[in-house]
């Protein structure tokens, strides 16, 4: 029997976004008899709770001095970061990991580069975003991708951005996100719709996720204002929260859409809210992947998405939805109106989308892909399932 492989995971993310959720899924699906995982995680928050709840994972609290760390001063956060780096190096010496797993948040990336200088352990880089040169402070993410033994991305689009940044072709591997498809159903939740104030005759457009800069919420509000002039049945449901929620709510008021828009904040269980929607809008300027898009499709919803980032790899135009130019509220409005006009089309495309998710984006497929990737990395040969490639 092979001895367990020692892995060290490092995260400074307090919140449990799509990228952190998939880092969690990577850890959760590893065979505990084959991998011994030590995790440095924040002292509080959803990420801490999720990772510490994985059986067999040894969790160590490390506050990397992020803005979410509740440390009030910049000096205090800087000292906390240095203290966490020291703890990380001590942990490396103690557990002697064969690999360090990190996402693409700045502090874990810096930590990984530091570990590479003082240790021979492999680096498994799990960027949630594609590579953006102008946003890479000092080129640290590019540097990590060039030295990591594996950079595991989620779309061909992300892979191409890292290859252009200089990452070795054979080390950038596409392993697509996966969800538990049985958590999502293609049905209308009439009771929940009524609680939110939506009638059966209204057409509800939905968006789900963190309300932040590139997510396109303000563009979607502008599109809805335009579309409602021609179809007054349209309503908007916003699931999620973030630091730009107030500006988006201001846009709703300025457009005189308040009676037709519902903000429900962050929700741990999103499935009932997808069941209140008739159309899903992926409005991001350039979405790395869009886990919420896959969840919406698994719920039987047609998608109007922006033709950028990873979205065109998920949404098939004329089959599961429509693609429109990013940052174009007029085009988004036209797409929404096209789907609002035909319940038959919504149902047809929604069911095709659900089938596509069940074939390509289910969690078991991703678990096999990760297992094969790790088997090849640590033992030289995949253990089971489909052959390792850049196209899981």
Structure, explained:
The chain is globular and about 65 Å long. α3 crosses α4 (106-118), α4 (106-118) crosses α5 (140-147) and α8 (217-228) packs parallel to α9 (245-254). α8 links the parallel β8 (203-208) and β9 (234-239). The strands form two sheets. It has a seven-stranded parallel beta sheet with strand order 3-2-1-4-5-6-7, with helices on both faces. A six-stranded parallel beta sheet has the order 10-9-8-11-12-13, sandwiched between helices. It has 392 residues and is α/β, with parallel strands linked by helices. It has helices spanning 18-28, 46-52, 74-95, 106-118, 140-147, 156-164, 190-196, 217-228, 245-254, 271-274, 291-298, 311-314, 329-340, 343-360, 363-379, and strands spanning 5-10, 35-41, 58-61, 99-102, 122-125, 150-153, 172-174, 203-208, 234-239, 261-265, 279-282, 303-306, 321-324. The protein contains 15 helices and 13 strands. 41% of the residues lie in helices and 16% in strands.
